[in-house]
């Protein structure tokens, strides 16, 4: 699937020019994704190389980054990530910095994939946002809401889920979809133009919660194939 460079004419995405603007700009008028577009200094590839090989998701913190033997450019990259961590903490968030070699996948016979490689929306029970920044490796991807369809609304998939549920298409079935995150995953339409979040850009995207003024931002993690470089990802 061809990826377009952000924002690819998507009216749901709005650029901002500072962290303060990223924090203070409300979602509304169809905008459900805000991006502080940045070109960051430092050698993030060196940080990845010094971290060495691994698998799955490796959490990083100040102690780990401080213990790496880095050149000035590598140290600059590490400091940039730590500064972003502190920014979000100062805003009352609990961000994570990870080196991602790969995510777990669902069993192949699942009617609706619920892994992060599938286009999905995040959800919460109270007002919340998702924050993302990819520093190295393939970046997160998004797709406009009108260019995607909820998987559980597709007749064939819904019938398969109903068979798995063993019940009627009623309130209990809706609870089943919600409890298993089946109602949060989407498939792009044939004409969709998915876009990349890009490297170094700090994003704040809308989440599905009661009373949200906008629909959630549909996004996914990029496919990770053998031999691909690991990602450095900040998420909250």
From the structure above, extract its key features.
236 residues, 22% strand, single chain, alpha+beta, four-stranded mixed β-sheet
**Helical run tally:** 6
Shape: globular
Average residue-wise pLDDT: 91
Low-confidence stretches: none
Give the domain tally.
1
Strand content: 15-25%
Cα-atom radius of gyration: 19 Å
Described by strand count, sense and barrel closure, the largest sheet is: 7 strands, mixed
* Helix and strand sequence: EEHEHEHHEEEEHHEEEEE
Strand order of the largest sheet: 2-3-11-6-13-5-4
Helix/strand-derived class? alpha+beta
Number of distinct beta strands: 13
Q: State the helical fraction.
A: 10-25%
Note the gap between the termini. Answer: 27 Å
Describe the structure.
The protein has 236 residues and is of the alpha+beta class. The protein has one domain (4-150, 191-235). 25% of the residues lie in helices and 22% in strands. It has a seven-stranded mixed β-sheet with strand order 2-3-11-6-13-5-4. The two termini are 27 Å apart.
Short description:
The protein has 236 residues and is of the alpha+beta class.
Write the layout of secondary structure elements.
Blueprint: E1 4-5, E2 13-16, H1 19-24, E3 33-36, H2 44-51, E4 57-60, H3 62-66, H4 72-90, E5 96-100, E6 129-136, E7 141-143, E8 148-150, H5 155-165, H6 171-179, E9 186-188, E10 195-196, E11 202-206, E12 218-220, E13 231-235
Parallel strand pairs: 1-10, 2-3
Antiparallel strand pairs: 3-11, 4-5, 5-13, 6-11, 6-13, 7-10, 7-12, 8-9
Helix pairs in contact: 2-4
